[in-house]
Amino acid sequence: MKLIHCFEIPQGREDEFLAGWHKLTAVLQEADGYYGTQLFRQTGNVGTFAFINSAEWRDEDAWRRAVTSDAFRAELAPMVDFKGTPGLYEMVYEEVLPKP
């Protein structure tokens, strides 16, 4: 199961967001059913979201247990100014081409 989490970050607060995101990720690394993450930063002035997080989870229950844990909530509290829009997805198609 893939978590896609899009973030709107006030200009000039990117470093603050990144520091908090790394703390949250450290908590998740201990969670059962968490398989890793990627964070993408917007380039140029196209799009709404400054950062998009993609994380792999065993299933929805594992994700819900992790994000409702006391440890996760403690690290999340300083991040309330950063608007996030999460969603859980399953892959329905993948195309991978060889790179030249």
TrEMBL record:
Domain ABM residue range list: 1-92
Keywords: Monooxygenase, Oxidoreductase
Any one Pfam family match given in the protein's UniProt record, by short name: ABM
InterPro entries from the UniProt entry: ABM_dom, Dimeric_a/b-barrel
Keyword Transmembrane helix among record annotations: no
Coiled coil: none
UniProt keyword annotation of Iron-sulfur present: no
GO MF entry, a single one: monooxygenase activity
Source organism superkingdom: Bacteria
Protein name in the entry: Heme-degrading monooxygenase HmoA
UniProt organism field: Paeniglutamicibacter psychrophenolicus
Organism placement in taxonomy: Bacteria, Bacillati, Actinomycetota, Actinomycetes, Micrococcales
